């Protein structure tokens, strides 16, 4: 059986991690994998999560299955943070294994509802979007999104490309803190997208994986919520990996906004059916931690304060980098964990080999890998590779 399989190239991120771990240089700089690091390069468990875990150990009496849709209380509490005061009866939500699980579930639902639907992805986007959408059997079309050399959003080009979208096509949008570019739409651009979506009958699939790490929990969701209010149907895939620091617990949620309460209920039944055939029940621990935090005013306050510290640190590293490297002034205007530097593959490889600086081969850097102690060395190493 297995002889029929093709060899697969090693995952680029794992290869990078392997090289990093085996690099003996003590001043190596890790700007690769997309995990938040503090000023000491650590990814600690958030205090609020630790407190919630202690509470769970004391109070949890059973680990029996919950339900295919997960923990309804978790979903409702998270919905208040993600969707705000949306018209809840037109929404249905389920708990998923991470944002990845939410996106895969979304792709399966889209395919079940309309196998002819095509999904529009910006170039570039999070690399896994392609695999997740394709795995469900959906056809992908790409539209321009970002010019790496000029560090600008190609909004007109995107709108022109989307003019050829068909009714029922899906357009994937990053709610905030775009991965890998850090470049988000302006409120005016979101409005223009909303007009196009309505005029052409498209379905927005919104990926919100970094809420709270750009401009704050409410601000990062604001444009998405305005869009959601203006469209009849939409899908929202959320991740708690970054903003709760619960990466390995695999916790996220998927909401569908339907054009009636009946249609929302029908979508819910289908989501549960699909989830049953993929993971049957989502993992609970991370959701229980998030639920415990959001259910307590005190823990919520502690969590929001910690999240705010992470966000402030990211933005101060952005400002410092822009100050140290004037060619990267745009990095200070961007948000979230990533920037896609105007570097080619050779430059990225050179920085790794000569300077022990690790970033993804397309030039994506994790801003959270910068620290007061390594930023000057990074800036100095970078300058010869930048134009202007
Ligand atoms: N969407 C985007 C844009 C991401 O960057 C990520 C994580 N890298 C995810 C979704 C999924 O995150 P997770 O499955 O770890 O919750």
From TrEMBL:
InterPro entries, A to Z: Aminotransferase_I/II_large, Asp_trans, NHTrfase_class1_PyrdxlP-BS, PyrdxlP-dep_Trfase, PyrdxlP-dep_Trfase_major, PyrdxlP-dep_Trfase_small
Domain of life (superkingdom): Bacteria
Cofactor(s) needed: pyridoxal 5'-phosphate
Residue span(s) of domain Aminotransferase class I/classII large: 27-382
Keywords for the protein's UniProt record, in alphabetical order: Aminotransferase, Pyridoxal phosphate, Transferase
EC category name: transferase
SUPFAM superfamilies: PLP-dependent transferases (SSF53383)
EC number(s) from the headed UniProt entry: 2.6.1.-
GO CC terms: cytosol
GO aspect biological process, one term: L-phenylalanine biosynthetic process from chorismate via phenylpyruvate
Keyword Transferase: yes
GO molecular function list: identical protein binding; L-aspartate:2-oxoglutarate aminotransferase activity; L-tyrosine-2-oxoglutarate transaminase activity; pyridoxal phosphate binding
Subunit details: Homodimer.
UniProt record similarity statement: Belongs to the class-I pyridoxal-phosphate-dependent aminotransferase family.
Name of the protein this chain belongs to: Aminotransferase
Organism annotation: Asticcacaulis benevestitus DSM 16100 = ATCC BAA-896
């Amino acid at each position: 059986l297995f002889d029929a399989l093709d060899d697969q190239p090693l995952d680029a991120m794992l290869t990078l991690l392997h090289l990093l771990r085996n690099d003996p240089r003590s001043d190596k700089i890790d700007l690769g994998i997309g995990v938040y690091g503090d000023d000491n390069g650590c990814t600690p468990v958030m205090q609020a999560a630790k407190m919630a875990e202690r509470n769970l150990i004391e109070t949890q009496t059973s680990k029996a299955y919950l339900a295919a849709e997960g923990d309804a209380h978790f979903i409702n509490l998270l919905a208040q943070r993600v969707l705000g005061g949306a018209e809840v009866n037109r929404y249905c939500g389920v708990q998923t294994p991470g944002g990845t699980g939410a996106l895969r579930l979304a792709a399966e639902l889209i395919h079940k509802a309309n196998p002819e639907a095509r999904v529009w992805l910006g170039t570039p986007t999070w690399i896994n979007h392609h695999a997740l959408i394709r795995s469900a059997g959906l056809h992908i079309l790409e539209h321009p999104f970002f010019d790496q050399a000029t560090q600008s959003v190609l909004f007109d080009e995107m709108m022109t490309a989307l003019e050829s979208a068909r009714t029922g096509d899906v357009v994937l949008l990053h709610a905030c803190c775009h991965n890998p570019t850090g470049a988000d739409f302006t409120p005016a651009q979101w409005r223009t997208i909303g007009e196009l979506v309505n005029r052409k009958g498209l379905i927005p699939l919104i990926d919100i994986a970094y809420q709270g790490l750009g401009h704050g929990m409410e601000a990062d969701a604001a444009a998405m919520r305005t869009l959601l209010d203006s469209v009849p149907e939409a899908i929202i895939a959320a991740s708690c990996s970054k903003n709760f620091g619960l990466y390995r617990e695999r916790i996220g949620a998927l909401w569908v906004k339907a054009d009636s309460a009946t249609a929302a209920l029908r979508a819910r039944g289908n989501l549960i059916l699909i989830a049953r055939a993929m993971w049957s029940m989502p993992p609970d621990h991370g959701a229980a931690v998030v639920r415990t935090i959001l259910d307590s005013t005190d823990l919520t306050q502690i969590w929001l304060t910690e999240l705010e510290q992470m966000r402030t640190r990211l933005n101060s590293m952005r400002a410092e980098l822009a100050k140290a490297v004037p060619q990267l002034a745009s990095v200070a205007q961007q948000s979230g964990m990533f920037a896609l530097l105007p570097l080619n593959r050779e430059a990225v490889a050179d920085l790794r080999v000569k300077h022990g600086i690790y970033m993804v081969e397309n030039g994506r850097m994790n801003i959270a890998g910068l620290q007061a102690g390594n930023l000057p060395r990074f800036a100095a190493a970078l300058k010869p590779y930048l134009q202007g």
